Amino acid sequence: MTDNETVVLTVHGGTTPPTLAEAAAQHSVAEQDLNPDFGVRPIDPDRGLYAVEIRADRLPEQEQEVPSPYQGPFSNPRIEAFGPVRGDDEEPPE
Amino acid sequence: MRVPVLAILPSQEPLQESAATALDPNLPPSSLANAEVPSGLDLDMSFAAVPIGSGTGQEASLESLEPTQSERFAVRAFVDVDDPADIPEEVDGQPLFGDPAIAHFLTCGGTPPMGATVDVATKLNTAALSSRGLDGSEVAVAIADTGINLNHLKAQLGQMPLLDAGNSWRPPGGPAPGTSPVDHGTMCAYDALITAPRATLLDVPVLRATAPGGAVTGGFLSVALQAFAHLLGFWAVAFAPGGGPRYKALVINNSWGIFHPSWDFPPGHPGRYIDNPTHPFTALTSVLARSGADILFAAGNCGTQCADGRCQGRTTGTICGANASPDVLTLAGCDTNDVRVGYSSRGPSIAGMFQNKPDITAYTHFLGSKAFGPTAPDSGTSAACPVAAGCVAAIRTKVSPTTVPPANLFAQLQSTARPVAGQVGWNRDYGHGIIDPDSAAQSLGV
Questions:
Q1: Active site annotated at which positions (chain B) (predicted)?
Q2: For a tag on chain B, would you pick the N or C end, based on fewer CB atoms within 10 A?
Q3: How many structural domains does chain A have?
Q4: Which residue among the candidates B135, B145, B183, B275 is catalytic per the annotation?
Q5: Which residues span the domain enclosing A68?
Q6: Which residues does chain B have within 8 Å of residue A76's beta carbon, measured at their own beta carbons?
Q7: Is ipTM strictly over 0.85?
Q8: B327–chain A nearest CA distance, Å
Q9: Does residue A18 form part of some domain?
Q10: Using CA atoms, how far apart are residues B108 and B112, in angstroms rounded to an integer?
């Protein structure tokens, strides 16, 4: 994997999303390690499932044993356009 | 297996007569049935013998190519072998040559435009759709891309398209909706408006990550996740009875994806994206689709014949991640001659995801938005995807997602798609065929 400077973690809440501090506590990380600009985003609000973003180097050495379903870290790969992009040196459609 | 070959035979009367008849249709019909043919060679009786003179490759005179003068003739025949490696170099001393299938060159990245917007509109029968009021009115089309430039669209379309700036999504520090530099996102917006000119654009610049030098190269999946979460919220409000600005439907265009597994976590990691339906982004995509949003993804540009360099030579199992979700419509690309473009990713999808992708094919590689210059085509499956998104938006003008949910509409688009020659059911190049929005709309009663 390259360029994965951040990863995504899922967190659980109710009908409203958990706060950033509550999300951090669920993964035993510091609140300031979570990306405040990303915040807490809904994945499946009906199931109380939300997501937060954290720098990969701030993950705990040993992820705590978590019950299923898996909560992360999830990959945050780069994405690119499937067509020409200005400033790209390669020939279209690259 | 039966392999077609070209065989070189010495002159003999049936070959002379066959060649002469081919040159002069007034001569009586001839047959190769009496030709002396080496054992193991099954002559193709429908292929007239071709005089080749001495057949040595030396410069031949016209006289030496006269049927009566030619020392040798080329004929078409078949040999039966178990393996292509077993094809003999000669039969009874007569040399054999390959007779491979030939076809016109596929459209690739450097190919000039094949047709223009008007040709695409004709192929999609947009006039018929428009005459029935299927023009995207009150339908929101989110362009999740590099951002939209409204002024360029106005210049190309002759009128300012509709944009809902208030419900567009803006990354921190990003440009105001509709004011991004002319780029890939503007191309996508233009292509969506071909069939849905009255649709309202939502500018969702998920790919606006800036590399050193200022080139827009892409983004990260978490940015797309943020944007989709925004759209989920927007859609919940916009579509709620008595809610804020109401739209009949929300169509989300995604002409982006992952070019190579090396961009992701290693195989087997439970947090990997490309082959993991439970990854948060793919899960959110499914939730958004189940809430009634029509989500389209491009298949990718890793087609066998001329894959994008970023595919690193990998051309199988390249449709991956949310692009291979069963809840989205995945687009292959063809040119305006209905021929798949060589860079369009082929199915099946990466193992672990829904296999029968792409779902359907739409037009690309035509002179359209001119976002990349006055003669540069709108290309990639990137262009095919919004062309199809416009078709969906046009149909949604009169077909509500509450009565026909996205999955049902996509199934209708697949069942009414025009099969390419010889196609029965799904195939890995075109999916279920080439999109036919007029037929799909009629089948839905509009």
A1: 145, 184, 382
A2: N
A3: 1
A4: B145
A5: 6-75
A6: 220-222
A7: no
A8: 15
A9: yes
A10: 9
The answer, yes or no, to whether residue B210 has pLDDT greater than 60, is: no
B405 C-beta neighbours (distance < 10 Å), count = 16
DSSP B340: B
Any domain includes A1: no
Contact assignment for A79 to B224 by CB distance below 8 Å? yes
Query: Which among B145, B216, B264 is the nearest to A86, CB-wise?
Result: B216
pTM beyond cutoff 0.90: no
Report pLDDT digits (tens) over B146-196: 999 999 999 999 999 999 999 999 887 788 999 999 999 999 999 999 999
Q: Two tokens at B318? A: 């390249």
Residues of B in contact with A37 (CB under 8 A): 172
Q: Which one of A70, A75, A90 makes the best mutation probe of the B interface by having the most chain B beta carbons within 10 Å? A: A75
Is B222 in Cβ contact with A8 (below 8 Å)? yes
Work out the end-to-end distance of chain B between its first and last CA atoms, rounded to an integer number of angstroms: 50
B245, B167 Cβ separation under 8 angstroms = yes
| B183 in active site | no
CA distances from B40 to A15, B2, B49, B92 (A): 76, 11, 18, 9
